[in-house]
Design a protein that fits this description.
Strand order of the largest sheet: 3-2-1-4-5-10-9-6-7-8
Radius of gyration: 20 Å
Strand content: 15-25%
CATH architecture of the largest domain: 3-Layer(aba) Sandwich
Family: Belongs to the universal stress protein A family.
Helix content: 25-40%
Distance between the termini: 16 Å
Protein name: Universal stress protein UspA
CATH superfamily of the largest domain: HUPs
Oligomer: single chain
Largest sheet: 10 strands, mixed
Number of domains: 2
InterPro entries: UspA (IPR006016)
Order of helices and strands: EHEHEHEHEEHEHHEHEHE
CATH class of the largest domain: Alpha Beta
Number of helices: 9
């Protein structure tokens, strides 16, 4: 994660959360931060005649908010701020991310969410079903987290596409020099009625396989371990896992996603209900030039 991080900013607590999380990720990896505020384009309100003086007032206010946001970043980080216009906030963020060749887009939770929890708003929903760039979801209250990035967790099942997910998580752990934790969800995803003994065998076998794959991707000095999630449901398994204050978790897109694009799957959506740390959603495949 040494490329740019694009932050979708609004002058709200969610915007502050997104900037704070991007700052922690950038401080750990050396990435630059591009803070982007997207204003509605003229085409979104055809009933109202254009008013140049009002438009300039709005832009001036946006620039002032962006200056405040940039001032909240850790000292010494490479960062810039931008005001853009687009038909939708998500469209504007995607355009900026492609322009800056960003590795990730960071957005905050919707208003009204519980502190430390995720609540998807319209912008996050749009990105999670259309972006070809990984999206980082900041839970409510991220602005108050003082711990640096201290561990990367990746949730892995048995469906195809886990190789890209594992590579991206391993790359962040290596760049930040923090431990990588692999969470095997295979025992939670098994059909109902499977015998307990069979669950243990499948879980142990899957854990060994993903651990071997992770060690092949990581430098020798980056610690890696594997945990087999246990619980009656995905939500139950998430609450039983221990989470560190500065941790992030990677999940892959649904098998329904278009190649190289995101599509939030049912497992990730269930995890979000209970997850107290940021989630990074990546595609199941990548473009040939990225392979």
């Amino acid at each position: 994660m040494t490329a740019a991080l694009v932050v979708g900013y609004t002058a709200t607590p969610a915007g502050a959360d997104a900037v704070a999380l991007a700052g922690r990720l950038a401080a750990a990896t050396g990435a630059s931060v591009e803070i982007v505020m997207v204003l509605p384009s003229e085409g979104r309100n055809a009933l109202t005649p254009p008013d140049a003086s009002y438009d300039e007032y709005v832009r001036a206010q946006a620039r002032e908010w962006l200056r405040d946001a940039a001032a909240s970043l850790p000292e010494g980080l490479d960062h810039r701020a931008h005001v853009r216009t687009a038909e939708s906030f998500g469209e504007g963020l995607l355009a900026a991310a492609r322009e800056f060749r960003a590795s990730h887009i960071v957005v905050g939770a919707a208003d009204g969410g519980l502190r430390g929890r995720h609540r998807l708003g319209s912008v996050a929903n749009e990105l999670l079903h259309s972006s070809d760039i990984p999206v980082v979801l900041a839970p409510a209250g991220s602005v108050d987290v003082t711990a640096p990035l201290d561990r990367v967790t990746v949730a892995i099942g048995t469906r195809p596409g886990a190789d890209v997910l594992l590579e991206d998580a391993a790359a962040l752990a290596a760049a930040a020099r923090v431990p990588l934790r692999l969470v095997s969800l295979v025992t939670v995803d098994l059909p109902a009625g499977v015998q307990t003994s069979a669950i243990r065998v499948v879980g142990a076998s899957h854990a060994d396989a993903v651990l071997e794959a992770a060690r092949a991707e990581l430098p020798a000095d980056v610690p890696v371990d594997v945990v087999v999630a246990e619980g009656d449901s995905i939500e139950d398994a998430v609450t039983r896992l221990a989470w560190q204050p500065g941790e992030v978790v990677f999940v892959g897109s649904s098998r329904l996603a278009r190649p190289r694009f995101l599509f939030l799957g049912s497992t990730a959506a269930k995890m979000l209900h209970e997850l107290p740390v940021p989630m990074i959603v990546v595609s199941r495949t990548r473009a040939p030039e990225e392979s």
